[in-house]
């Protein structure tokens, strides 16, 4: 894996497409969440977004207790990279994966979520064989209709089945409404998290009334986390995109109590064809910037719009009167969606005031299993 | 890079998500194009799709003259993997890339496309410095509004500027209408390629009338290539997806003269949550199957539909009365779009009649520059 740039190189000389991390903006984003969370909730930053232990270490240096992941392979990459506390904020199903997860717990504190009693038994058996202990969180369905058991009785029953296992520790509840993150209106996002908070409170009370201690309620993302914090129902938040921002999150309404994060993540691209006066073709298409949540947005070039992506090309419309980019000129794109875009690259090219400072390997890129 | 499976393993035991290549269907697809092209046109299979020299070698064993790519980094991976004839069917702009391309021509026959006279001079200077020769194709704009010069005079002028360079060889015309590939109606696809063929013929005649020999006209994709073959205007075709097929291409109308290719590419996924009776959640989301051209389609499981993807999850709707998949059960998905899906994986898990036969590294995965 040859790095795509060298330390000390000016940004303008970095070959394209390249994934650029603006360190000043990135560090301010990290500090914003650390400051807001301090004394109120724990931060467990989501490494499904960053895919990079170097990012996780910087989040932990500002107080995060560890990272979370969605995949065992991501957790393996994080532990390999020196992160000692990893929660797989997701169900892990399948013998091979469960074995790997249980073995990983010999090297770091490992948590996992459950929504099925049979899965609890499979985790217990694997942890027993591996001679390890796993933190297990019962996932509550709080509005996104994906994984998780219903609040109340079903959660209590599952928590009891976890607590009955010798090699599992009932660590609390996972409660995350992913759908709410991208709801544009602040009021609607607040209302969705309000509903989730009621479900969390009701379930926690039921657990404690029944003698099942619930140490941690964890969840929340970059688009809502201050609603979770202010509700008082969560002990830990799991934002990931906040470090980077993207064009889709930029479309949200942002107002107190939520901070608007700075754009720290870019795709550097080169104009590779100027065959038409009203159009430029750039060398970053949908293999360089994921378009699942919309086209990338051109950074600070009025009158230029990235209108369409093919696999390896981007179409840039040039408005009449706009400063047209020359063949060979480089542009910065804000990706539509940071998570799957980062997953297309092997390295962050870390830049400060226009100069490459570091190259961070994206060691969990492609960590699917 | 640890392989995700082992030779001899039953498909059902392969961990998920995994990229599965059904070798029987894949080999029949390769043979279909080889048979249709034999004696009529050369085949130069597109490695922007396969990203894998092992695939290219099998295409060449059936008669393909080499492969084409969209990126210098892909071409480097192909040459490294033993492919001796590579066309970058795209413009290459930027000093670093052009230097690499010119140096690569010391190791293999390398072609490249141009649509700008300044770019021709940059290629010539780099080839001179590297002491190599490059095959240069003038790209014609034939309907997709992306790169390429207009047919006729502009192409002639650019071909002359190539022919005037000591280290460049004018190799012919690149003429590809990518947009036409996914137009659903056969008649409309045929009409679009008919227009492109007229532009090609007119330009070739103008070149030859002006004493500029045009050795090869190259282009065409999996959705149209027999129209190009039957027009007689192309000498070489560049299909890539035909080896794999995908759910988007399956929506095209297919009839003579075009063969309907077999689905040879799948994402194997596991049901990881069955919290609701009418829904299954699988462990392949948009980081496992690119959704730019639509959701993946579930293979041979009536009543199940993949309706929505989040980053690491797929939502599967279960119709009333359908055989519901159990927790832990594995399903095969046909990706919506093969090219960007393959680019998410490091390995093809090659399977024949349900048993892993080989693991092919996707060495040009992430080859962006």
Q: Top keywords for this entry?
A:
homodimer, 369 residues, alpha/beta, Lyase, Ornithine Decarboxylase, Chain A, domain 1, TIM Barrel, 2 domains, nine-stranded mixed sheet, eight-stranded parallel beta barrel, 11 helices
Range of helix content of chain A: 25-40%
The number of domains of chain A: 2
For the secondary structure, the number of strands of chain A is 17
Bulk shape of chain A? globular
Low-confidence stretches of chain A: none
CATH superfamily of the largest domain in chain A: Alanine racemase
The proportion of residues in beta strands of chain A is: 25-35%
Question: For the report, how would you describe the main beta sheet of chain A?
Answer: 9 strands, mixed
Could you characterize the architecture of this molecule?
Two copies of one chain form a homodimer. In chain A, the strands form two sheets. In chain A, strands 1, 10, 11, 12, 13, 14, 15, 16 and 17 form a nine-stranded mixed sheet that branches. Helices cover 30% and strands 26% of the residues of chain A. Chain A has two domains: 1-25 and 246-369, D-serine dehydratase-like domain (Lyase, Ornithine Decarboxylase, Chain A, domain 1); 40-240, TIM Barrel. By secondary structure, chain A is of the alpha/beta class. Chain A has eleven helices and 17 strands. In chain A, α4 (72-80) runs parallel beside α5. At the A-B interface, β10 of A face β10 of B.
């Amino acid at each position: 894996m040859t790095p795509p740039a060298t330390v000390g190189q000016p940004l303008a000389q970095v070959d394209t497409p390249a994934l650029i991390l603006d360190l000043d903006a990135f560090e301010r984003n990290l500090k914003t969440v650390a400051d807001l969370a301090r004394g109120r909730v724990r931060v467990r930053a989501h490494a499904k977004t960053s895919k990079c232990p170097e990012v996780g270490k910087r989040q932990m240096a500002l107080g995060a207790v560890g990272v979370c992941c969605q995949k065992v392979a991501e957790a393996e990459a994080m532990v390999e990279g020196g992160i000692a506390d990893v929660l797989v904020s997701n169900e892990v199903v399948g013998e091979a994966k469960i074995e790997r997860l249980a073995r990983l717990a010999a090297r770091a504190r490992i948590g996992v979520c459950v929504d099925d009693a049979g899965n609890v038994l499979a985790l217990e058996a694997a942890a027993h064989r591996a001679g390890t202990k796993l933190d297990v969180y019962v996932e509550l369905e709080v509005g996104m209709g994906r994984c998780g058991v219903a609040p109340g009785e079903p959660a209590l029953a599952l928590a009891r089945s976890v607590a009955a296992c010798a090699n599992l520790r009932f660590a609390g509840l996972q409660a995350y409404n992913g759908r709410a993150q991208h709801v544009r209106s602040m009021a609607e996002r607040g209302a969705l998290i309000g509903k989730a908070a009621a479900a969390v409170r009701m379930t926690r009370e039921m657990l404690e009334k029944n003698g099942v201690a619930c140490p941690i309620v964890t969840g929340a993302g970059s688009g809502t986390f201050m609603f979770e914090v202010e509700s008082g129902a969560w002990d830990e938040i799991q934002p990931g995109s906040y470090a980077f921002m993207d064009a889709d999150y930029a479309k949200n309404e942002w107002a107190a109590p939520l901070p608007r994060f700075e754009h720290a993540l870019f795709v550097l691209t080169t104009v590779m064809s100027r065959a038409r006066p009203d159009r430029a073709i750039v060398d970053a298409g949908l293999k360089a910037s994921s378009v699942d949540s919309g086209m990338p947005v051109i950074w600070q070039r009025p009158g230029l719009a990235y209108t369409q992506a093919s696999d390896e090309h981007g179409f840039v419309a040039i408005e009449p009167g706009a400063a047209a980019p020359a063949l060979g000129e480089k542009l910065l794109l804000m990706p539509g969606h940071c998570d799957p875009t980062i997953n297309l690259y092997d390295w962050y090219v870390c830049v400060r005031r226009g100069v490459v400072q570091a190259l961070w390997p994206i060691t969990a890129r492609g960590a699917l299993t």
